[in-house]
Amino acid sequence: MPIHNHIVRDAHGRPDAAGLIARGVLLSVEIGVHPSLAKKATPGPPVFGKALVDTGATSTAIDRNVPQRLGLSPAGARDILTPNGRATAQLYAVELRFPGIDLPSVPSTQVAGVTLAELGLVALIGRDVLSRFVVTYNGPLGLVTLAH
Amino acid sequence: MVRRAPKEGAAGTGKQQTDDFPLAVDLEYFQAQLARWLEVHRGKYALVRDAKLVGVYDNPDNAYAAGVDAFGNVPFLIRQVTDEVEPATFPALTAGVMHADP
Question: Please, are residues A107 and A117 in contact by the beta-carbon 8 Å criterion?
Fold first, then answer.
């Protein structure tokens, strides 16, 4: 079973519970085109960046610039709640990969395009993707474990 | 890419087809057909392209594979045939930390 232990440490290498509170779970991700499309077309180069694991989000989202950089067309639309009420986000099919981490890639055809870049993020990993993992949050140790 | 939904309307209605939002026509078509499709395709995933129903599938992955096979990397709409659509929630976005609009 692939397992990733995400440990937040302080400057002295000690478990940092406050650091986990402050920064959350940030994973390095590589976002590429969905495998179904990769069989049919030459994919653009993947987009690398940080993804925030967000158990409060129903769905996974990517920054709106990612589909543009991958040359992806939308493959759906879904209502989302925003500070100003309902809006409709376009959905994209991508594959999330986790370089350097022993977790499998996750293809999804239902990823919403929103604006995340100002947070320094390329993706929010929501509960739809997390539903494929066992997630354990150990606050006192500054440790989050993802297992597949 | 996000478009504001009309206050009184359901998703996919009242939107204009633009380069930024190329699915407006297909969304309108989906909404117009939804009541009829619910009788025969409830719970399935519809694949719509150019205001035509291409097919219905058990899951969105199969619908996407069929769409790519048929049309390649162009805009098409995959949407579940259901009348119980809850909006996706992103608390960080709802709290205004993220921006919904370009």
Answer: no
User: What pLDDT digit, counting tens, does each position of B7-51 carry?
Assistant: 333 343 445 667 788 999 999 999 999 999 999 999 999 999 999
Chain A residue whose CA is closest to B19: A73
The pTM of the full predicted model, rounded to 2 decimals, is: 0.87
Q: In this complex, do A77 and B77 lie within 8 Å of one another by their Cβ atoms?
A: yes
Q: Distance between CA A65 and CA B20 in Å, rounded?
A: 12
Q: Which of A33, A76, A80, A88 is nearest to B63 (CA)?
A: A76
CB contact A120 to B (< 8 Å): no
* ipTM over cut 0.90: no
Instruction: Let me know: does A97 contact A105? Beta carbons within 8 Å.
Output: yes
Question: In chain A, which residues have their Cβ closer than 8 Å to the Cβ of B27?
Answer: 77, 88
